[in-house]
């Protein structure tokens, strides 16, 4: 496990931008060329399968070792996902959102494919320093990917990409140029980036103390054994938090909005 938070997030970022070139460009667009360290991350998100070797708790352990504490629980009935978010006592550190697919709720066929993938993984891998950005620990065919895709986009994404940051999230509150999510979205669209419009371009708002938007995932090549094919990789998110009646900025997530953010890895239609 990493013993330094900043090093961990740097490794996660490098691994993420390697297949998400848009995030790199947007980071520069929002921060200005000379000060690209001026972006504060609201949160970073991870996905996994709820099998013994790969459960949410295995990913969480890396963050708990660094002082993160579990705060919120979320359930996504239709997508068959359970999620938790974690916060660090140092509020300048990004929050962490981890979801896991309840594999036992999928069809027998999908379960068999996923079990076969995870069987290929060395159980010791989950405690390695690099686990959270170690990618896939299995071979997968395009046929199995397509089978999973027809049932669960999340399952297919996870099977193809493995363990890595699914997205980083810009904290709009701490941007120097603008603190308006509407303005950020306009800037992004003017620069040619495609936003996730499922449930509207902005999910949530001041009434739930959190407004979010995201790009649609980039595409990057995945090795399917006999061929490499470009599929949706990762996206970039933008979050604006509002003060609660007690004056503090809301720190949780909003399940109804998150449900739509997950769709940012759908193939663009
Ligand atoms: C996570 C989607 C939820 C949020 O900020 O609500 C989320 C995912 O796509 O893996 O990140
Ligand atoms: Ni997010």
Automatic annotation (TrEMBL):
Q: Which domain of life is it from?
A: Bacteria
- UniProt KW Transmembrane helix keyword: no
Q: What EC number(s) does this enzyme carry?
A: 1.13.11.93
Instruction: Identify the enzyme class.
Output: oxidoreductase
Origin organism is Alteromonas aestuariivivens
- Does Oxidoreductase show up as a keyword for this record? yes
Q: Name one GO molecular function term.
A: dioxygenase activity
**Keywords in alphabetical order:** Dioxygenase, Iron, Oxidoreductase
Q: What PANTHER family does the entry give?
A: 2-OXOADIPATE DIOXYGENASE_DECARBOXYLASE, CHLOROPLASTIC, DUF1338 DOMAIN-CONTAINING PROTEIN
| The protein's required cofactors | Fe(2+)
What is the name of the protein in this document?
2-oxoadipate dioxygenase/decarboxylase
Which family is annotated?
Belongs to the 2-oxoadipate dioxygenase/decarboxylase family.
Which Pfam families does its entry note? HGLS
């Amino acid at each position: 496990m990493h013993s330094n938070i900043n090093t961990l997030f740097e490794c996660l970022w490098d691994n993420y931008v390697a297949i998400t070139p848009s995030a790199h460009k947007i980071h520069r667009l929002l921060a200005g060329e000379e000060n690209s360290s001026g972006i504060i991350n609201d949160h970073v998100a991870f996905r996994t399968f709820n099998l013994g070797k790969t459960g949410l708790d295995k990913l969480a352990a890396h963050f708990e070792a660094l002082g993160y504490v579990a705060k919120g629980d979320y359930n996504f009935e239709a997508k068959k996902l359970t999620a938790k978010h974690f916060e660090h006592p140092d509020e300048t550190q990004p929050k962490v959102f981890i979801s896991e697919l309840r594999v036992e709720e999928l069809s027998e066929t999908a379960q068999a494919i996923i079990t076969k993938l995870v069987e290929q993984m060395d159980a010791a891998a989950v405690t390695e320093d690099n686990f959270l950005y170690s990618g896939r620990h299995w071979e997968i065919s395009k046929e199995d990917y397509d089978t999973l895709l027809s049932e669960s986009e999340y399952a297919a994404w996870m099977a193809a990409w493995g363990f890595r940051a699914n997205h980083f999230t810009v904290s709009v509150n701490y941007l120097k140029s603008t603190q308006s999510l509407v303005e950020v979205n306009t800037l992004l669209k003017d620069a040619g980036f495609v936003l996730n419009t499922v449930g509207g371009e902005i999910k949530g708002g001041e009434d739930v103390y959190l407004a979010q938007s995201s790009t649609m995932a980039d595409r990057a090549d995945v090795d399917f054994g006999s061929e490499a094919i470009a599929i949706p990789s990762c996206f970039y998110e933008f979050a604006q938090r509002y003060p609660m009646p007690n004056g503090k900025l809301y720190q949780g997530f909003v399940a109804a909005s998150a449900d739509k953010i997950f769709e940012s890895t759908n193939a663009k239609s």
